[in-house]
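2024-03-11 09:14:02 INFO queue: dequeued item ATP-dependent helicase, len=622
2024-03-11 09:14:02 INFO validating residues
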Amino acid sequence: MAGMKSIPFTVAKNEQFFDRLGDYIGDVFYDVLPEQGFELRDEQIYMAFQLEQAFKHKKTIFAEAGVGTGKTIVYLLYAICYARYMRKPVIISCADETLIEQLVKEGGDIDKLEKALDLEVDVRLAKARENYLCMKKLDPLSEYTEDEEILDVHDSVPDFVFDQGISMQSFYPYGDRKDYPWLSDKQWEQIGWDPLKQCATCDFRHRSAQTLHRDYYRHAQDIIICSHDFYMEHVWTKESRIREGQLPLLPEASAVVFDEGHLLEFSAQKGLTYRFNYQNITNVLTGYQGQDVREESLQLAEDIMALHDEWFDLITEIAIRVEGSNRLEIPRNPKMIEMAGRLEKMVQELLEQLVFDAELFTMDAYHTKIIEEYLEFFTYGLSIFLKDDEGVYWLEEDGDESSLVIMPRLVEDVLREEVFQKNIPFIFSSATLSQNGDFSYIARSLGVDSYESFSVESPFEYEKVRTIKEHSYTDETEKFEGIAQQLQDNEGHSLVLFRSEEEMQTFRKWAEPKKWSFDLLFEGDKEISELVRTFQLNLSSALCAYHLWEGLDVPGESLAQVIIASLPYPPDDPVFKAKRKHAKNPYEEIDLPYMQLRLKQGIGRLIRTEHDKGIVHIWKQA
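2024-03-11 09:14:37 INFO prediction written
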């Protein structure tokens, strides 16, 4: 790669890279960082040695290190040096956008390393499509909306997006969700990427926010940071994108680091899902009917749409709402299965008709390809749906939109083949990877057959700086009154963690009529990194959230109290029901480990540095 950044130390012709790397890392930890005010930790030195072996021998390693061990600094140092040695970027995959923000924000770990080592690190973010502006939604909306904040977004769009005559050389990335921190999540839904829009045929395709950001991050020299969800989407779509003449979502990496790696399995399952929006097949088949095709093909397409509507109506009717989840459970109804079987046969028949229609050269080749791919996708998803016990499925509702989601029950075989067969280092980093020092559960669930592992405890003396109190309640009002009192006593400075969005919104409705002497902030009211920043800077505030059990790093006075409103057991939704069904002891094997892991993560939000102290309140139903 032209202009590649140099390794931050010299390697003579008669020297080995890893020998010099060890010397350099030693100098950094023993001399350079302490001179810059960093505290040398034995845990970091031990971790550094373990990671060096993993990079050197291209191993998979589970690096379990408690809060305060400085594990992020260790893996970042190795990632930067290894990327420059291999001349390929290292991918750092994080649990979510919050954790990504902790890495790249001003004063974050990358910023600290750059300043301490006088390095310029080329780090770029690869985000999921939902984080980018959709001009196909924003442009028409700007014609009639009275929402000044959305109009401000439209005014900020660069001129080249609208002017077809401007040279592509003048294009630059724009339209990231983070660029519009004042918008609430509900406002963003009106203008953000939409799976119903046909990006492949969009007028704005080559000047869209999504396209330009992808082109930008693909040229990263040191580090590309993405979410677990995005990394798994890259894995599952890589081959199909290459077949279609597209670039994979991510470039080839020299190594991959999974930060909060214990959450990768959930993203892998999510990435393998087949999502059928109620309107999609109607849109596709309506486009098919608009082509010059035979009468029998038109009639078959009409019959499929009618049966599909009837089938979806039945699914919507029998679906059962689950508290704490946006997944509606779908009971296995005989009529629903019979209709799905008929639907699959009819779509297979239409695929055969499509081949015949295409041979007559009466259809546009591009439309033929789009229709064929969607129908194949549709039938494959239905095949999983029809096989009892092979898939997990549920209904999701978002306003007027409904989607049937079908997911394979197990992902370890696919992960083993598609990810961990690669001959590169894979680093799993988290404070919670093992069950009492045993890493076999996470390794088995991810399809990792050969691995190294180690655990180092947090250096913080928790018993001296952290108090944990448990409280019982008999009804919701009693609990909310107790939480309110704890917030008032602490004058804010608190993070309140809820088990679900529904629980948070119930508390919000209860709290709104009350008078508070500090600001109550709620997840979803602003872009998440801006919300966290507001909380950190406004010492007289409390942050209420349901997603921030891990990844949130707010040291100092702003966060002196964590209130856990409910024990974070997994929701009783189709995914966890499937897991429980295949466990000998569901509570011991599924529910309890999930709850303990999440609880441990939630408690870990309190003490982030050796100077922090505070209290954790845990509410349990009597």
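2024-03-11 09:14:37 INFO annotate: Residues 334-359 form the longest helix (26 residues).
2024-03-11 09:14:38 INFO item closed
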